[in-house]
Amino acid sequence: MRYVILSKGDPKSEALKHKMMCHMQDFNMIEDAENPEIVISVGGDGTLLQAFHHYSHMLSRCAFVGIHTGHLGFYADWLPHEVEKLIIAINKAEFQVIEYPLLEVIVRYNDEGYETRYLALNEATMKTENGSTLVVDIDIRGQHFERFRGDGLCVSTPSGSTAYNKALGGALIHPSLEAIQLTEIASINNRVFRTVGSPLVLPKHHTCHVKPVDHGTILSTVDHISVKHKNVNAVQYRVANEKVRFARFRPFPFWKRVHDSFISSGESL
């Protein structure tokens, strides 16, 4: 089994990474940062997001596992005292692979034919560079839907619906559903300007285009990555063809994670 371990970098995570590598040598596991079968993140959900983007070019060939050294995460579900159990499970059992939908983001510029493409595990946002009002036209399936004015927009995956999207009042979507969710960030609604005012859940076969009215500089985030784009013609959002693969060695129900994270870890459903 070829593996790689990515650590948050703090002393606790680094110590756990070293401990795991010593155990993995006993099982003759091969450390291979170039072509791993298992990508193990040690830290939290942020560390796993970094691991995902580092290996996003080989999603069909590797599976991710998260170990949290802080608070319980939606992706990092193993505890530090369980690492020996995890290593044994990796070597002794055929693990289940769970696939989650991803968000594809394509930024197209006024320079014809020039575009950049990203994949998001959690979400992508669009705001203005200087914090001024974002004014954009939103098209869905090639038809104009609305002109948005406000602080910005957030487009999330189902697994990312529990993150920034939730804080904006978006719905929580089970990761078995291939969809994306468009949520407003402080929209302007009055007698002159009007938006739908509700999150939109788009299925896999629907594509959303967001077109800046002034074609100026926009600030875009893709998970933890922030990029400024100039002279933007449109940004396309849709469910990606690729999926992220997680290695599962035990049940990890989505709704239990929601319950434990936002309601009470001391109560049972």
UniProtKB/TrEMBL annotation:
<keyword id="KW-0521">NADP</keyword>
<keyword id="KW-0067">ATP-binding</keyword>
<dbReference type="InterPro" id="IPR016064">
    <property type="entry name" value="NAD/diacylglycerol_kinase_sf"/>
</dbReference>
<dbReference type="GO" id="GO:0005524">
    <property type="term" value="F:ATP binding"/>
</dbReference>
<keyword id="KW-0808">Transferase</keyword>
<keyword id="KW-0520">NAD</keyword>
<feature type="binding site">
    <location>
        <position position="149"/>
    </location>
    <ligand>
        <name>NAD(+)</name>
    </ligand>
</feature>
<protein>
    <recommendedName>
        <fullName>NAD kinase</fullName>
        <ecNumber>2.7.1.23</ecNumber>
    </recommendedName>
</protein>
<keyword id="KW-0547">Nucleotide-binding</keyword>
<dbReference type="GO" id="GO:0003951">
    <property type="term" value="F:NAD+ kinase activity"/>
</dbReference>
<dbReference type="InterPro" id="IPR002504">
    <property type="entry name" value="NADK"/>
</dbReference>
<keyword id="KW-0963">Cytoplasm</keyword>
<keyword id="KW-0418">Kinase</keyword>
<dbReference type="InterPro" id="IPR017437">
    <property type="entry name" value="ATP-NAD_kinase_PpnK-typ_C"/>
</dbReference>
<feature type="binding site">
    <location>
        <begin position="45"/>
        <end position="46"/>
    </location>
    <ligand>
        <name>NAD(+)</name>
    </ligand>
</feature>
<dbReference type="GO" id="GO:0019674">
    <property type="term" value="P:NAD+ metabolic process"/>
</dbReference>
<feature type="binding site">
    <location>
        <begin position="122"/>
        <end position="123"/>
    </location>
    <ligand>
        <name>NAD(+)</name>
    </ligand>
</feature>
<dbReference type="GO" id="GO:0051287">
    <property type="term" value="F:NAD binding"/>
</dbReference>
<dbReference type="Pfam" id="PF01513">
    <property type="entry name" value="NAD_kinase"/>
</dbReference>
<comment type="function">
    <text>Involved in the regulation of the intracellular balance of NAD and NADP, and is a key enzyme in the biosynthesis of NADP. Catalyzes specifically the phosphorylation on 2'-hydroxyl of the adenosine moiety of NAD to yield NADP.</text>
</comment>
<dbReference type="GO" id="GO:0006741">
    <property type="term" value="P:NADP+ biosynthetic process"/>
</dbReference>
<dbReference type="InterPro" id="IPR017438">
    <property type="entry name" value="ATP-NAD_kinase_N"/>
</dbReference>
<feature type="binding site">
    <location>
        <position position="186"/>
    </location>
    <ligand>
        <name>NAD(+)</name>
    </ligand>
</feature>
<dbReference type="GO" id="GO:0046872">
    <property type="term" value="F:metal ion binding"/>
</dbReference>
<dbReference type="Pfam" id="PF20143">
    <property type="entry name" value="NAD_kinase_C"/>
</dbReference>
<feature type="binding site">
    <location>
        <position position="151"/>
    </location>
    <ligand>
        <name>NAD(+)</name>
    </ligand>
</feature>
<feature type="active site" description="Proton acceptor">
    <location>
        <position position="45"/>
    </location>
</feature>
<dbReference type="GO" id="GO:0005737">
    <property type="term" value="C:cytoplasm"/>
</dbReference>
<comment type="similarity">
    <text>Belongs to the NAD kinase family.</text>
</comment>
